[in-house]
Structures are given as C-alpha cells and as structure tokens.
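Hi R.,

Here's the chain you asked about this morning:
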Amino acid sequence: MFSKISIDLGMRIYLLIVLVVIVSSAAYSHEEDELQEHEEQKADIGEQLKSSSTTYITIASIVAVILVLFSIYEKDKSEKMKRFLFLGIAIPIIIATAYSAGSTIYLNLASHTKGPVHWHADFEVWNCGQKIDLIDPTGMSNRVGTPLFHEHGDDRIQVEGVVVDEKDVDLHNFFEFVGGIINEDYLYVPTNKGYTEISNDGICNGQQGKLQVFLYKIENPDETKNWAFEQQKLENFEGYVLSPYSNVPPGDCIIIEFDAEKEKTDKICESYRVAMARGELSGG
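And the predicted structure, written out as tokens:
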C-alpha cells in the first residue's frame, strides 16, 4: 500500500515539475517576445534553433536533477519506482538530444553555407579625418553583436556559425547587431564615450560631407601571400556581404568614411598595411 502511494506521489511530483518548468519557460518566452520584439524580428533562424535547443536541454537537466534527488530520499526501491525514475530521467533527455541533433542537421542542410563557417573582414570608421572606434565588448562572451555576427574589439568583423540566409551577414545587419545603424544617408555608431552620429547633411572641413564606403578586395584570393587588391567604392554598401575567408587578407578591408565626396580613399586597414610592408600584397 505504501509502495503504491509512493509511486503515485512520485508521479504527481514528476508531472508537477514538468508542468511548472514548461509553464515557466513559456511565460518567460512570452515576456521576452513582448519586451524584445524588435530583437527577435532581426534574429536569424539559426540563433532561434540554438536557443530552443538550449532551453529544452536545460528543462531536461532540471527534471533529471530533481528526480535524482527524489530517488536519493525516496525509501521505496521497488521495480516500479526504479522504472518510473529511469523513464522520468531518460525520456526528457532523449527528446532534448533528438531535437538538438535534428535542429543541427536541418540547419546545415537548409543554410546558405551548408554548414558552419568562420569568416573575417577588417573595417574602420572615419568621421572627417577622425577614426571612430566601436564600443568595446564586456562580459564573459567578449563580443559586441550576436554569436553569428560580431566583433571582439579589434576592428574585425566575424561571421562564426551557420549562415541560413546570405542577407543575415550583410553590413546593415552588422551595425544593427552591434547597436548601431547604417544606411546611405546616416551612420550611428556606439562607442565607449557614447554614440557618434553622422549624416549627409553635415559639413566636413568646410565642404558638404557624404557617407561613403570603400572596399579593398583581393583579386587572386587563392594565391599564397602574393595577393593583388583592388579598391572600389561601394554603392549599395548596406547589402554588402564580406568575402568568405578566415584570414585578412585575403579577407576584405572595409573603410566607412564621412568626407567630401570622392572616388577613392587614402585610408587602409592595418592588416593590409602590414601585408604590403611584408611584400605579400600589392595593388591600388
């Protein structure tokens, strides 16, 4: 009789735990939806799947830990109780693991890159001859931006993960993810001293200024340290997607500059400058 009561009690506790965790998770997600609706709209599907997988694994772990503790203090060691505890721990873990594995496989097959990538491009922002530094990262993650698209305080854009849609990693999204804005008329950059705003109605050295983006792009990226580059002015710079290379060079150098309108810039990324000094890079 006591054994049956213990099993029934255990089942009720187990179901209550699962219900509380699920309801709490749903309530938290709903609150996050309302408070950060804009952030979720711009989040890519890869991050959503990763977040869901982490949530399910966390729920499974909580259930498993509680049931293990329950088994330690439960005196009923009957076969039915052992079976209940085993299934109560195993089923959530199996479901969470299967979801995580399935999400990873789906993401890789459906993605633009067909799997994880690690791309780099260097960039600099200049406001009328003054270099503007993006805000430094804080916290354990040591990055500004999202896990997929970010910067580590070193003037280097990084794409790190699975790119579902190529548009997810364009220049517009990079600035949006780091807390800024870029379009053909306006630039908004978070810095350690606040925000820098640049617009095309401003004046630079007594002349009408214009927001412009210049690209140093390697013409022969398959060569080994014998690269030639071409400088070009980007027209649709918001939609530019960096070249798919891990090292810089042959990864891109992107110069964002507010100055009098011109066809070329004299600014160049430090990585390109060093490569030129070593004789590994040439062009103009």
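Helices lie at 2-35, 37-42, 45-73, 79-110, 171-177, 270-277.

Let me know if you need anything else.
M.
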